[in-house]
């Protein structure tokens, strides 16, 4: 665009400024670049020389990060995000299957993209697939507002279901604004039959060092506050006497300033599985690996886990309301232990956050919860390092981990688990680690 041959086109167009991203010279050249380079004649421009100069300029100033660090989905909407930079990273440009388009020379953010991708099988409708950039519901705060986004970012599709006998109507309920970091995003779980599948795409695990900031420490008093995240419907404020979990012994209890009281309880399969089954059955939790399982099947999975010495499940309660499922495991006893040198004091983690309800929609909610969970994992359990292994396609989760203090490890292939009672396919994962020194200093 800086070539003298285009000098006459540099005068700003006589149109409103809103059109300049598309009518200014640099974006116009950027959009047409591949065609200009292939044209039989281009005003006498020495194209090989221009390409060589551009490559040398780029090589002299290599980018500091990956494509997805700057190329992010930023769709037009009525209200801007509360926290800039929380948009998900994108892989590829407008010529690939993800079909995202930025404005060359102006911004790497992509405001445009397909409203949906679909593959329709005319012979067998049940084999059809589709996906949308955000979710099936356009109302912020809905559990379905962004539940398809992890699949869309990975280039995956979800089944198209049109058989009314297989569909169920969800009860109408008020929607709450969603927080930018979205505590409703699920991680990839331990899998439907044993606790070995690693943390995954879209959840914030105890790996969100927004939490590890010198927490207030365990407290001995209980003062459950009212409606909190992770209920399937709004609840009235609770009093201490109405806390259904008050009589259960916690392995960790902590009052977090400005957030509330967090209690980590050993999972009670009989009492807790109805809640867990609702969580893992939602489409947003598809990567947890239990979509479609019955409540009895979920109960059998966690009853089996309860017999293991190396894998443990916990229900996390905030002010008397369940807000998360926390699973811990010994990496040496898990398939991830085959992929990196396990160190003494390592602990593996999977975390599934409950649907966003009540105050869980406010900014900082996830950080408050993770303050307590990180204290439990690194201080309460006296561990030296948290290990996570998100899918390599989950650029947003990986970037968040690194931003929050994790150190990236190698990309690995978690081996297939093929036993009579369980099958877990292999998975490409990005290992990352958070040490006690980074989380708490010292």
> Which homologous superfamily in CATH is the superfamily of the largest domain?
Gcn5-related N-acetyltransferase (GNAT)
Q: What oligomeric state do these chains adopt?
A: single chain
> How many separate helices?
10
Q: What portion of residues belong to β-strands?
A: 15-25%
Q: Radius of gyration from the CA trace?
A: 25 Å
Any low-confidence stretches, pLDDT <50, length ≥5?
174-241
The largest pleated sheet is described as: 8 strands, mixed
Provide mean pLDDT, rounded. 76
Overall shape: it is globular
What is the element string, with H for helices and E for strands? HHHHEEEEHEEEHHEEEHEHEEEEH
Tell how many strands the DSSP assignment holds. 15
**Strand order across the largest sheet:** 6-7-8-9-10-11-15-12
Task: Specify the CATH architecture of the largest domain.
Answer: 3-Layer(aba) Sandwich
| CATH topology descriptor of the largest domain | Aminopeptidase
Would you give an account of this structure?
The chain folds into 3 domains: 4-86 and 101-112, no CATH class; 117-166, no CATH class; 240-440, 3-Layer(aba) Sandwich (Aminopeptidase). It has 442 residues and is an alpha+beta fold. Helix content is 22%, strand content 18%. The radius of gyration is 25 Å and the shape is globular. An 8-stranded mixed sheet has the order 6-7-8-9-10-11-15-12, with helices on both faces. It has a 3-stranded antiparallel sheet with strand order 3-4-5. It has a two-stranded antiparallel ribbon with strand order 1-2. Strand 6 (252-256) and strand 7 form a beta hairpin. Helix 6 (269-281) crosses helix 7 (295-305).
């Amino acid at each position: 665009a800086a070539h003298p041959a285009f000098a006459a086109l540099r005068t700003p167009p006589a149109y409103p400024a809103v059109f300049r991203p598309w009518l200014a010279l640099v974006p116009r050249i950027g959009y047409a670049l591949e065609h200009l380079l292939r044209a039989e004649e281009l005003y006498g421009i020495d194209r090989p020389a221009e390409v060589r100069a551009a490559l040398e300029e780029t090589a002299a100033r290599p980018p500091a990060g990956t494509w997805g660090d700057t190329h992010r989905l930023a769709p037009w909407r009525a209200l801007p995000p509360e926290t800039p930079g929380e948009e998900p990273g994108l892989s590829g440009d407008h010529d690939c299957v993800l079909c995202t388009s930025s404005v060359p020379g102006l911004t790497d953010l992509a405001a445009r993209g397909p409203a949906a991708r679909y593959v329709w099988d005319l012979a067998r409708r049940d084999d059809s697939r589709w996906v949308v950039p955000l979710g099936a519901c356009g109302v912020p705060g809905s559990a379905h507002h962004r539940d398809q986004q992890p699949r869309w970012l990975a280039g995956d599709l979800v089944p198209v279901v049109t058989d009314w006998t297989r569909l169920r109507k969800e009860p109408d309920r008020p929607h709450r604004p969603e927080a930018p970091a979205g505590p409703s995003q699920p991680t990839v779980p331990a899998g439907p039959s044993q606790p070995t599948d690693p943390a995954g795409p879209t959840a914030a695990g105890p790996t969100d060092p927004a939490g590890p900031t010198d927490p207030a420490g365990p407290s001995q008093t209980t003062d459950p506050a009212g409606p909190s995240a992770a209920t399937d419907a709004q609840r009235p404020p609770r009093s201490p006497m109405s806390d259904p979990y008050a009589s259960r012994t916690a392995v960790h209890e902590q009052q977090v300033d400005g957030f509330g009281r967090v209690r980590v309880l050993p999972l009670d399969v009989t009492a807790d599985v109805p809640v867990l089954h609702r969580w893992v059955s939602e489409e947003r939790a598809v990567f947890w690996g239990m979509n479609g399982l019955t409540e009895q099947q979920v109960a059998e999975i966690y009853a089996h886990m309860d017999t293991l010495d190396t894998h443990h499940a916990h229900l996390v309660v905030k002010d008397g309301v369940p807000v998360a499922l926390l699973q811990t495991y010994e990496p040496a006893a898990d398939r991830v232990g085959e992929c990196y040198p396990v160190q003494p004091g390592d602990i593996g983690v999977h975390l599934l956050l409950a649907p966003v309800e009540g105050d869980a929609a406010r900014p900082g909610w996830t950080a408050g919860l993770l303050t307590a969970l990180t204290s439990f994992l690194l201080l309460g359990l006296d561990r030296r390092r948290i290990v996570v292994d998100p899918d390599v396609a989950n650029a947003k989760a990986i970037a968040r981990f690194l931003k929050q203090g994790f150190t990236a490890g190698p990309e690995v292939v978690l081996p297939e688990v093929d036993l009579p009672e369980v099958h877990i396919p292999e998975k490409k994962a990005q290992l990352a680690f958070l040490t006690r020194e980074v989380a708490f200093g010292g």
